[in-house]
Structure formats: structure tokens, C-alpha cells
Design a protein that fits this description.
Keywords: Iron, Metal-binding, Oxidoreductase. Belongs to the iron/ascorbate-dependent oxidoreductase family. This is 2OG-Fe(II) oxygenase. The chain is α+β, with helices and mostly antiparallel strands. It has one domain: Sandwich (Jelly Rolls), CATH 2.60.120. The protein is built from seven helices and eleven strands. The chain has a seven-stranded antiparallel sheet, sandwiched between helices.
């Protein structure tokens, strides 16, 4: 399978430098880049079949965490935004369960796609994870499962929606709510989101859509799935340096195994 069999190259010419620069400008301005219909229908159908076949082997877990993904701060009470808990619950299959012939694998490894991601994000290098689990993940959210409010630790995330539920599972975000580099956690702003007085933006994402998102300073979540149709999402993860592994504790938490 060629890259043109996977990506709608006519609409999204990933090998074109001008297109890459336009993508970078859009991502820098909005904090999110949404490429609807990025994946061709036949390739998307293959991804859906692969994800459905793997769902029975997914590791499901639930975590209670703060939006900052940090340990409890003893300087504040439990109801403070630094310590207030939200819940994330999902299933996951890992990189070692994604076939070498999968369109996801071909897309992830293809130089033209990787060069496009580098240009859009401003990264000079992109490398897969050194551990065997973390580069490509497929996430599953059944009825009632959600991704709680949080800030990312990484500078950007790449996701590809494979299957959309009939109701719920909305991607919601508030752009640039904090400035992590400056040490500004904006507790008041986070509290306003958590109590519902500050309304987030919402993205209506359709299957086959590629999303690049800068979530380090933008608070975001995926609301609970309100249907019996599973939400399926591929996460494509790179590192700016070679040889990076997800920690053993993180792998046990998210995947239930180390290898």
C-alpha cells in the first residue's frame, strides 16, 4: 500500500512545502489543526476493521488525576484546582499489536508524513519511541468512558479518529489557559472550567480526520461516550530525540504490561 492509497493527497499534499507551511501557520494561530477527510475511505475501512478486531485484547483502565497530571500539592486543599480530581477511562492496544501491513503503520513510518508533521509542528527531528508499546496506540471508549480535563506534558499530539460514537465523546478545549513555561498555572481559569462558568470550544470530528493539537497550555477533555458505539482513536506519538522510552511505571499504568 502506498501513501497515496492512505492519504487524500490531492486535498492534503503532505510532500508540498507550501502546504506544510500553511499547516504550521494554522496550528500556531489556533493551537489545533483539523484535517477532515485526511484518510481515504478504503484505508479508513481497513483501520476500522483492525481496531474492531483488536478491541477484545485492549487493556482497560481508569485513572483519577488532577488536570495538571501532577501529585497532590500539600499547600492546597482537595478542592483546589491543583488537587481536584477528574477521571479518565479507556481501553488501549499498543504498538506491538498493530500489524506491519496496517495503514496506520505505513502512515506512521512514511517519510513524507513525518516531514509534514515536522514542518507543521516546527520540530527538527521526529523519532519513534524506543519501547515496543508507545509509538502507535489505538484507544477505545465505551459507553460512559471519558478523558478527563487535563493539560498535556508534550508540546503536541497527533490523533486520528477511526470510529465516532452516536452520541457524546466531544473534544472540548480552552486555548492557552495557562503558561507552563512561565510558571503561570492559572488556577482561577481552571476552576472556572471545572465549575462550568467558563465554556470550552468544541470540535466536531468525523472519522478519517487527522488532528494536531497543542495541549500543553490548552486545557482539554473528551466528554463521556453516551452511546453503545465505541469511540476508536489512533494516537501517533513521536519524540524529538532518539532512544526515548515511556517509563515503566507509565507503561504499567496505561498498558498493564512492559513489553
Amino acid at each position: 500500500m502506498e501513501i497515496a492509497d492512505i492519504i487524500d493527497i490531492e486535498r492534503y499534499p503532505v510532500g508540498n512545502a507550501d502546504f506544510g507551511e500553511e499547516a504550521k501557520l494554522s496550528l500556531d494561530d489556533a493551537g489545533v489543526l483539523v484535517l477532515e477527510g485526511f484518510i481515504r475511505p478504503h484505508a479508513l475501512a481497513m483501520m476500522q476493521s483492525e481496531a474492531a478486531a483488536g478491541q477484545g485484547r485492549a487493556y482497560f483502565c481508569t485513572q483519577s488525576h488532577s488536570v495538571y497530571l501532577t501529585p497532590p500539592n500539600p499547600d492546597f486543599g482537595d478542592s483546589h484546582p491543583a488537587n481536584q480530581k477528574v477521571e479518565s477511562s479507556k481501553g488501549c492496544i499498543c504498538d506491538d499489536m498493530v500489524s506491519i501491513a496496517s495503514p496506520l503503520r505505513i502512515l506512521y513510518n512514511h517519510p513524507a508524513f513525518r516531514d509534514f508533521i515536522k514542518q507543521a509542528t516546527g520540530e527538527t527531528e521526529l523519532h519513534p519511541y524506543a519501547d515496543p508499546l508507545s509509538s502507535i496506540n489505538i484507544h477505545y471508549a465505551n459507553r460512559g468512558q471519558e478523558l478527563g480535563w487535563h493539560f498535556d506534558n508534550s508540546s503536541f499530539a497527533i490523533t486520528l479518529l477511526i470510529q465516532k460514537p452516536d452520541q457524546g465523546s466531544h473534544f472540548e478545549y480552552v486555548k492557552d489557559l495557562r503558561d507552563a513555561d512561565a510558571g503561570d498555572m492559572n488556577y482561577d481559569g481552571v476552576a472556572a472550567v471545572l465549575d462550568g462558568t467558563l465554556r470550552p470550544k468544541m470540535l466536531d470530528i468525523t472519522p478519517g480526520t487527522l488532528v494536531l493539537f497543542r495541549g500543553r497550555d490548552s486545557l482539554h477533555r473528551v466528554s463521556p461516550n453516551e452511546s453503545d458505539k465505541t469511540r476508536m482513536l489512533a494516537v501517533l506519538a513521536y519524540n524529538s530525540q532518539p532512544g526515548v522510552e515511556l517509563s515503566e511505571s507509565a507503561r504499567m499504568t496505561f498498558y498493564g504490561r512492559l513489553a
